[in-house]
Amino acid sequence: QVQLVESGGGLVRPGGSLRLSCAASGSIYLINAVGWYRQAAGKQRELVALITSGGTTSYADSVKGRFTVSRDDAKNMVYLEMNSLKPEDTAVYYCYADIRTSFWHTGSEYWGQGTLVTVSS
After folding, report:
1. Alpha-carbon distance 7 to 109, whole Å?
2. Is residue 114 classed as helix, strand or coil in its secondary structure?
3. Does 110 score more than 90 pLDDT?
4. Per-position DSSP letters for 66-108, written without gaps between them
5. Residues whose CB is less than 8 angstroms from the CB of residue 14 and which lie 6 or more positions away in sequence, other chains included
6. Is the confidence at residue 61, as pLDDT, over 90?
7. Rounded CA gap, 28 and 3, in Å?
8. What's residue 105's pLDDT?
9. Most exposed residue of 9, 23, 36, 109, measured as fewest CB within 10 angstroms of its CB?
């Protein structure tokens, strides 16, 4: 079993910063791509940022230049540094990971339970 647990959400004023963390635990052989999605009220879940095992990153256009995704494979952690936050960034943020649980396993997708980020004055 693999679990992803997010932390770091909360209320922040426009222009402020937050750092989200996600800890992966369980039967982990290798973490392939890992990153963050978000879902605002009444909207579909969307990709925010992704980082591959090789360190290649991709971002939604709406967060480029403001958000930074990073990973620490030694600790099975992924982070999302969010700066210059806007009210439209308000959403539940979900950690996502494609994880291999053994050498023979090509990977399965896992999701965290989500953490709420609210940007409001």
Report:
1. 19
2. coil
3. yes
4. TEEEEEETTTTEEEEEE-S--GGG-EEEEEEEEEESSTT---E
5. 85, 86, 87, 119, 120, 121
6. yes
7. 10
8. 87
9. 109
The four Cα atoms 112, 91, 34, 15 give a dihedral, to 10 degrees, of -130
Q: What does the DSSP assignment read for 5-67?
A: EEE--EEE-TT--EEEEEEEEES-SEEEEEEEEEE-TTS--EEEEEE-TT--EEE-TTTTTTE
Token pair recorded at residue 31: 């973490």
Question: Reduced to 3 states, what is the DSSP secondary structure of residue 4?
Answer: strand
Q: Average pLDDT in the 26-53 region?
A: 96
Q: How confident is the model at residue 114 (pLDDT cuts 50, 70, 90)?
A: very high
Question: Stretch 42-68: mean pLDDT, rounded?
Answer: 97
> Which amino acid is present at 101?
T
Structure tokens given for 94? 């979900």
Q: What is the mean pLDDT of residues 86-99?
A: 97
* Beta-sheet pairing, 77-82 with 18-26: antiparallel
Across the chain, what does the average pLDDT equal? 96
